[in-house]
Amino acid sequence: MTLSVDSSWFRWQRRAKDSFSQTPSESTPLLSGAKERQSYNLSQQRIVFPNNKTFHQDWAKVSKFYSGNRIHTTKYTLFTFLPRNLLEQFHRWANLYFLFLVILNWMPPLEVFHREITMLPLVLVLLIIMVKDGVEDYEKYRFDREINSSHIQIYKKKEQDYVQKHWKDVRVGDFVQLQCNEIIPADILLLFSSDPSGVCHLETANLDGETNLKQRRVVKGFLHQEPRFEPELFQNKIVCEKPNNNLSKFKGYMEHPDQTRTGFNSESLLLRGCTIRNTEVVVGIVIYAGHETKAMLNNSGPRYKRSKIERRMNIDIFFCVGILFFMCLIGAIGHGLWKGKFSGLPPFDVPDANGNFPSIALQGFYMFLTMIILLQILIPISLYVSIELVKLGQVFFLHNDIDLYDEETDLSIQCRALNINEDLGQIQYIFSDKTGTLTENKMVFRRCTIMGNEFSHQENAKRLETQKELDSDDEDWTKCQYGAFPGLSTLRHSGGAKPLRRSQSARAHFQCHTRHRSMGRCDSTQSPVAFSSTIEKDVTPDQGLLTKMKDAALKLDTLTPHKVTKPSFSTGSSITDFFLALAICNSVMVSTTTEPRQRVTIPPQIKSLGTSLEKIHQLFQRLKLSSLSQSFSSSAPSDLGESLGPNPTTEDLDEQDDLSTQSCGDSTDVGYQSGSREDVPAKQDPLGAGSPSLEDVLDAVIPEPEFCYEAESPDEAALVHAARAYNFTLVSRTPEQVTVRLPQGTLLTFDLLYTLGFDSVRKRMSVIVRHPLTGEIIVYTKGADSVIMDLLEDPAKAEDPVAEKKLRKIRAKTQKHLDWYARDGLRTLCIAKKVLNEEDFQRWANFRQEAEASLDNQDELLMETAQHLETQLTLLGATGIEDRLQEGVPDTIAALREAGVQIWVLTGDKQETAVNIAHSCKLLEQRDMVYTINTESQETCEYILNCALEEVKRCYDMNKTEHKFFGIPLPCQAPSSTMEAVVPDIGLVIDGKTLNIIFQGNLENKFLELTKYCRSVLCCRSTPLQKSMVVKLVRDKLKVMTLAIGDGANDVSMIQAADVGIGISGQEGMQAVMSSDFAIARFKHLKKLLLVHGHWCYSRLARMVVYYFYKNVSYVNLLFWYQFFCGFSGTTMIDYWQMIFFNLFFTSLPPLVFGILDKDISDETLLALPELYRSGQNSKFYKLSTFWIAMMDAFYQSLICFFIPYLTYKDSDIGVFTFGTPINTISLITILLHQAMEMKSWTFIHWSVLVASFLLYFVVSLVYNAVCVTCNSPTNPYWIMEKQLSDPTFYLLCFLTPVAALLPRYFFLALQGTWGKSPILEAQKLDKLPKEKKDLAIQEWRRQKERLSTAGREAPFPGNTRLGHLQVPHFTEQESRVSSLKESSSPMKRHDGNWVLNRDKSSPRPCPGYVGHNQSSPSSSARPSPDEHLLGPSGMFMNSQTGSPGASSRGSHRRSQSSLTI
Questions:
Q1: Is residue 1381 over pLDDT 70?
Q2: pLDDT band at 1272 (very low <50, low <70, confident <90, very high)
Q3: Is residue 673 exposed (0-12), middle (13-18) or buried (19+ Cβ within 10 Å)?
Q4: With left for phi above 0 and alpha for psi between -120 and 50, is residue 362 left, alpha or beta?
Q5: CB-CB contact of 1404 with 1419 (8 Å)
Q6: Pairing between β-strand 986-991 and β-strand 929-933 as defined by DSSP bridges
Q7: Is 1135 among the residues known to form the active site?
């Protein structure tokens, strides 16, 4: 039976016609007036006319307003390249400064150098950058030309057929025909598909990186067509929204000739860049083309971020400008004073054209400008070019680090931002996502609860533990035969499951893989289906639940043809509905292993073992519990009382429930155990140990085909694999039907009436199906427990008190199990159902049709219809899915924390799940005090923050110590890392609602002040917007360097807000990677990326920048000192070309090699001693003090290099260049030796570059002085260097002067190396030891640190032992607002509306009106009893830890922790 929507559709048509006849339609402003005089308003919406004979004129008028399909991502054209590139380069103010100097030097009164010489440095820098930009832009041009020239089949009305054209020829309104495996050239509305179901499959890897296929459907009304689509018969106009960059949203309607409308959405839109899969032919009409497509609108290009060193460098350049201004001012004043000594006019003054001489003031001004030109190299223009070259070299070595390569995914690190490499070495705060970042995002079904009965799946937990052990081995099992074994799933036996072999691990399809960089990515080694690894697919059933399934199957033979009027109460029907919901409530595409990407639409013919359809029908009627599947219609009567039998008592019902629960073996509430505990022996099989199970019989007779499930999310895949483990196998799916194979072998085909997809607002998904046996219309819903539990039917509305009690008990038990799952770190989902009658469904379907046909408020109407349907649900059960922790995450987090990095986790998961994962990855330790704040009251939130701050500050104030351990200095009111070894570690857990209160109530400062004392912060249930707001808050308020890391689209805003954004190329697509600055494959790679490469990049670049400032100031001061002896005339004693070559050639290569290759500490030492990373956080190598020390050193060295030769040649008759050449040579030697003293590692390249620079200077000088006879008349450098090399005084000066200039620095470095206690210096000493001694020294270093840390933690102070569990009583939110403002008169007395003050008597100075402290030991953190509710109603305050002190610990996640839960 299929749904008929004719009545609602025609009613909508009549309503649309009536409203259109009276007033112009609000949703169609494009259509007005008579047909022959239509006017088109294209400013609000887009109207698309088909390019055929009927609408050719309209198409020609409208299409000219739309963009063509030719794209150009280039920045320049042949004519605009030169002016536009120069304009962009002169946006850098340093280039403008040097352009200003060039213009000044062209003025005759100010000419210092030859005009061409002054232009040479600027022209050379501009030319280098211009060539680089030109090459990059040309590569983009070649790529654009290749894309625009791709071929496509376009319909042409003249030929009446599809003609091969180029992509650039596509226009809006064209009909395009695509074949399988073709790339879509534009955004196309799907009108025809060769698939009988009207489905087209897309691979969106080029768009978002996701490899799983997406389904797109033909627009309604075009499903059943001829085998060939005829464009000339298309007589409809299309109205849709304007072009936008929202990839997931699209709405519009198609207007037919009779003015009826058919709505469509993003399910019918094929996006540019995607690839057609599994469909032979599709035809569509182009909606958006070229740069108006959604893919192009999302391509905003790389973002520009300024590094911290660059910001610091800009400040220091202003200091250099100040120094330059001061030196020029001295020159101008000195020139005026010198000219004033002459009684008359100096003989060297030249009058102007009128014979007048300028005044002394004007001459002083001219000299000021002349000195700017003379001393221009004080501003290091070559530094910018050098920094870019150094960063390119750093990125090259970063990209080729084999340790940052992941063999499993065949991915290495990607450096998408080349200008912030050094920021990796200065990170102070890391903000991390949880799912897919700290975890693998490989969802594994762990356990479930059905109708209040919990099934622990101990055998499955044992399999996973075995798998973890095998994955951690270093055996050579990966060298065995390649690939996964098709059809080899986990063997099921009555005693359990066999552990997976190594070849069946999650990495099976990557075995024997070696890295071949020249071959690119080896796609053949990867599974073509996402979320289909062995560990995800193979689920070992729970024996208790499997027994119930067998019992239900064995009852098939006892069925009789007569109708069962009063079925007995049983969980069989709920179990069936539960697994049916897991199998069909999804959007999974089914394929086979032989053709993994070919969708199964026709279910295979499977023998049913003689079980007739009539018997299956009777089984469903017998197991059906109609009271738990009521319609939301009041006309549907509840027969729960009848189903329970005649007058059952409450005691009998409880006893019956307990007996049924205990019969589940491991599935009892009392028997709940964590996966880490030993297995509870399963009870004996009721069928007998010798008799084969029904499943074994079915497997022997029915060769079950190997299906592949193409899911859009790993959660969906995990649930479908779990249903298949219990033989509820999803066999095929079409847009109209979904087929499931039951345990008995029978195929059930459900009519798929509607699918309400998952969205982040509803947080749930629903499917509406018609049951093939009962004919009922059933709504299956799955979603977050926080949402589903609020949508359940009210037990108070049950007609029978016994039924009401039963429903309440089921809900309470399920909630308790959900809390257990969350505390075990499992992801939870609730499963529910609802039965509709025909009348209610028809009425809802009419509303849905109207919402789909709307354009203006389509999203709101669709949301309203979905929310109207998903109410009064019947709870079936819940699932717990494990997201395994990534390898190396705990070690990475521990190392980063030793490095002084604060780590925050921002996740949308449940609070209990996030806390458990935090304990697993060592973000929280057993000794930590954890504050948990959940509130929706601003007054309460402020009160709690104040009291928590007071308690923590008191703890820190009482335990101040003078000991330091390489900490990051923080303000005095906040703690520093130096105290972390002496004070208790504090963690903070906060939820999204509390974050809203903090942001809206101006509590950010108090929140940040509290977080300064916290070792870890977890923000749970946070939205993407809240993530970015938290990052911006910490970055802007605390002025710290932040790093955000994530793997999904919900992490994009957080990644972009941080100083450094890192994307993980995981299973959630590539949106995070495309928005990031760096992309890695695993979270563990962050350790070496920061601790090693971050340290190296920062230390190299920071010291290189300081060296550049020193080098330029030291050299330019030589010219400044000479002005005191030439009357401040602006002349030089060094040849102009020698000055140019000095910076461009003689001293340029050593800093480049230093910035790319120098290693102050080896990578092994940096990884073994993470605290060395703190030097970058403190900006040790480049800060204000280091800059001014370098400036003073430069002034001192310039004085020595100038005045020693001056005193040597004083009163002699040597020429100007003869005096300047020794000074120039001495300065070069001093600067190169200074560079050599800065180098910490020496290789052949280091030696070669230094020696080559020294020799190059003499070669160039000799050649230049030999050939330059009249280069600089009247003073020429001819034969100067040749004469100097024959003078012994020259050699003596070149030896003694650099020694005298560098002696203070050498002396300082010697003292520092001998007596300095800096960890960097100690580590450098360790690197010089032999390997054995070095390892022993590192171990001793770490032991000393551990002893210090242990001594601090064992120090007896109240803050370490008394700051325990913060308790708050149960009271309402309204009472909290009153009590938070009142002062409690009886602090030890418990009463409603007041805080409970329960402080240990030995606790010092309790916080007035605040909470108390009770030490909580691990033994007191036992599993709460079944009658205790962990989560109360909304707006209640409650304790987050319950249990008796004598109870045993349930698992490792139950820890001694304090928490303040509101």
A1: no
A2: low
A3: middle
A4: alpha
A5: no
A6: parallel
A7: no
Instruction: State the Cα angle at 488 between 483 and 494, rounded to 5°.
Output: 150
SS3 204: coil
Q: What is the pLDDT of residue 15?
A: 39
Is the pLDDT at 155 greater than 90, yes or no? Answer: yes
Residue labelled with tokens 């699932």: 879
DSSP state of 489: -
10 Å Cβ neighbour count for 458?
26
β-strand 1060-1064 against 1078-1080: which pairing, if any?
Answer: parallel
- Quick one: which of 1419, 1444, 1459, 1432 has its CA closest to 819? 1432
Q: Backbone phi, then psi, for 397, in 5-degree steps?
A: -70, -30
Which of 433, 577, 785, 883 is catalytic? The answer is 433
Tell me what percent of the residues of the chain surpass a pLDDT of 90: 29
pLDDT confidence of residue 615: 52
User: Which has more confidence, 405 or 655?
Assistant: 405
Best CA proximity match to 1206, nearest among 1229, 1226, 1228: 1226
The closest of 175, 150, 370, 373 to 275, measured between CA atoms, is 150
Yes or no: say if 996 and 1025 are a contact pair by the CB < 8 Å rule. Answer: no
**Cα–Cα distance measured from residue 952 to residue 984, given in angstroms and rounded to the nearest whole number:** 10
pLDDT score recorded for residue 665: 36
Interior/surface letters 231-246, b for 16+ CB within 10 angstroms, e for the rest = beebebbbbbbebeee
Q: Where are the beta strands (DSSP E) in 907-1033?
A: 929-933, 986-991, 1016-1020
Kindly give the pairing relationship between strand 874-885 and strand 261-265: unpaired
Tally Cβ neighbours within 10 Å of residue 301. 7
Residue 1428, C-beta contacts closer than 8 angstroms, at least 6 positions apart = 1442
C-alpha to C-alpha distance for 882 and 1196, rounded to whole angstroms: 66
Pairwise CA distance, residues 615 & 563, whole Å: 11
Handedness of CA 829, 833, 839, 840 (dihedral sign): negative
Q: Which residue has the tokens 């989560």?
A: 1431
1069: which 2 tokens? 């697509």
Residue at 1417: amino acid letter: S
- The amino acid at residue 1331 is K
Each residue's pLDDT tens digit, 601-612: 666 554 444 344
Q: Which residues pair with 812 in a beta bridge?
A: none
pLDDT 10s digits, 833-857: 999 999 999 999 999 888 887 767 7
Amino acid at position 542, single letter: D
For residue 400, give the H/E element and its range.
none
> How far is Cα 261 from Cα 135, in angstroms, rounded to an integer?
51
User: First and final CA of the chain: distance in angstroms?
Assistant: 52
Read off the DSSP letter of residue 910.
Answer: -
- Residue 13's H or E segment, with its range, is helix 6-22
Reduced to 3 states, what is the DSSP secondary structure of residue 553?
helix
**Chain-centroid distance, C-alpha 990:** 20
Instruction: Report yes or no on whether pTM surpasses 0.85.
Output: no
Q: Nearest Cα to 384, choosing from 133, 122, 134, 137?
A: 122
Q: How many CA atoms lie within 13 A of 957 on its CB side?
A: 9
